[in-house]
Amino acid sequence: MPSLSDKEINVTLSKIRGEYEEGAKKYGTKIYNVESFNNRYREALQTRQDLSNYFLLEINILEDIKNRLRERELEKEKREAEEKKAKENSFMNKVDNMIERFRNAVEKYPIENIHPKADEEICHLYGAFKELYNCFCVIRYFSGEASDYVIETAIKDYDNKFQRFVMPVGESKIPIIFSDYVFALEKSEGVARSEQFILKESGFFLHAFIEKMESIKTTALKKSFDNKIILPETLSAQSPRVFSFFKGKNKEEIYNATLTYASAMINDFRLQSFKKDEN
Asked: Mind listing the UniProt keywords for this protein, alphabetically (predicted)?
């Protein structure tokens, strides 16, 4: 191999040193050690090595460094991708588990048909309201014994308020609260907005219902003739589940169970944030 000219030597030296200096800025002097290169170059001059072969060797050393760094970067990217995927899988597993818990919580309530395209959660919400209303009807049944204007007014007020959630009306034979939802399903437009309206109104009602029933509870139970109750026979036909659950329970247990049912609806249908200061 012909000897290099002084100009070629200087150009090659400048290029190699430049790569070491640039590499040192990014990866540090332990990996790109220009002083080590300078020492090897001085040794090559002192031992009169063929500089063409020497520079080829140094260029190969630089290529080896670059290859190791590329491998390290690829390994880092692979590890980060695996960690990201693991986190995503973990997050999705948590989401799936959460959705499954919500589904299981909602499915414990009766289901009432609203529309062939209706979301099951909304159908279960309708069924839950019907069952809660049957619980409330038992409270209404024995609260009349209290002969108290405040209690009678509260019971009558919430009996009326329940109707928009449970009383079938119109050709569709569904409660008013679900009518816009059915219309949206028919038009395939505004369904999500209608669902949100139902959930919001349900939350408002349930929070207010619990607060009102809690506020009259002591008086309603105190002014009843006694704590025992004979359930109305019509309840066994209207809601066998409620009749079976309430059978053998006293008035206070029935009252508390009704409030617990309403609270469970708030949690299970995720209505906690829908609350306003209104009875």
From this structure: Coiled coil
